[in-house]
Write a structure and sequence with these properties.
Distance between the termini: 46 Å
Protein name: ABC transporter ATP-binding protein
Strand order of the largest sheet: 6-7-8-3-9-10
Largest sheet: 6 strands, mixed
Shape: elongated
CATH architecture of one domain: 2-Layer Sandwich
Keywords: ATP-binding, Nucleotide-binding, Transport
Structural class: alpha/beta
GO molecular function: ATP binding
Length: 311
């Protein structure tokens, strides 16, 4: 099946010489939830803005369902809904008028039944006659999503969709996004909330300093990089790691008081029982032990953490 979005060698360099994106290659599958994860300033919004035709790329091209977003701008853009970070709406318009007007901007004929369906899906029906200025921040965010869906796009971009939203509303929005995917909408979200990507995404891309440094299935990412550590606190400090323990993935802290055993949490055998027997045979007594699973956050930090380049 052809990817719904194809990003080929896309780069963006501003007049100042700042390189915001460096030759990005990425394919988004039809019907998936794809999370683009990265710290603030990594290039997430720039990439989305290029795909949506808001910013011009300096190099490369983007295809939306096979259509070039530059050469076939109107057709390609009609496939895309965008929920930007900023909550920009006319404060004195009603929810109904705001969403209906957005549909008209894309040349779609009036369809009150569809607008009603979208508002009900987003729990906005009871607020349809309320003016935008009377809504809470979370409700305004929902209206922005309704606007983005008003012209029935097959691709939805959510740029930091839960920024400034409380935890309860964030989880409601996660459920809503899953529902959109079930209705056939491909969802691409940018976020720096690790739990958002871990909770929702089918695949995760990590972007940092304008470079796409990893794209992987979420579960595969956790399997490949999500290791488990067993921390063994020793009764008596060791001067060095005994050579006979070399078969284990062990490290000794500088004080000699703690061993750290790293193992694959998904492997059939952890090797912990064998390690404990080996320690006992060597007369190494333990004071305490603790285990810890690597989280997606730790994986993310390890991927984006680089020493600053020397000037």
């Amino acid at each position: 099946m052809q990817p719904i979005i194809q990003i080929q060698g896309v780069g963006k360099t501003y007049d100042s010489g700042f390189s915001a994106l460096k030759s990005i290659d990425l394919e988004i599958r039809r019907g998936e939830i794809f999370a683009l994860l990265g710290p603030n300033g990594a290039g997430k919004t720039t990439l989305i803005s290029i795909i949506c035709g808001i910013v011009n790329a300096s190099a490369g091209r983007v295809l939306a369902d096979g259509m070039d977003i530059v050469q076939d701008y109107r057709q390609a853009r009609s496939l895309i809904g965008l929920v930007p970070q900023e909550l920009t709406t006319d404060a004195f318009e009603t929810v109904w008028d705001t969403v209906s007007f957005s549909r008209g901007l894309f040349g779609k004929p009036a369809d009150p039944a569809y607008i009603e369906k979208v508002l009900r899906q987003l729990s906005l029906w009871d607020k349809r006659n309320a003016k935008m200025l009377a809504l809470s921040g979370g409700m305004k965010r929902r209206v922005m999503i309704a606007k983005a869906l008003s012209h029935e796009p097959s691709i939805l971009f959510l740029d930091e969709p839960t920024a400034g939203v409380d935890v309860e509303l964030r989880r409601d929005m996660w459920e809503m996004v899953r529902g959109l995917r079930e209705n056939g909408v491909t969802v691409i979200l940018t976020t720096h909330y690790i739990e958002e990507a871990e909770e929702m995404a089918d695949r995760i891309g990590v972007i940092n300093r304008g470079e796409l440094i990893l794209v992987e299935e979420k579960e595969m990412l956790m399997q490949q990089l999500g290791q488990k550590q067993l921390y063994l606190m020793l009764q008596t400090p060791l001067d060095a790691l005994p050579a006979s323990l070399g078969q284990y993935n062990l490290s000794l802290n500088d004080e000699g008081t703690q061993l750290t055993y790293t193992f694959d949490a998904h492997h059939e055998t952890s090797g912990i029982a064998e390690l404990l027997r080996s320690l006992s045979e060597l007369g190494i007594d333990l004071k305490d032990l603790q285990s810890k699973q690597s989280s997606l956050e730790e994986i993310f930090v390890s991927l984006v953490h680089r020493p600053e380049e020397s000037a």
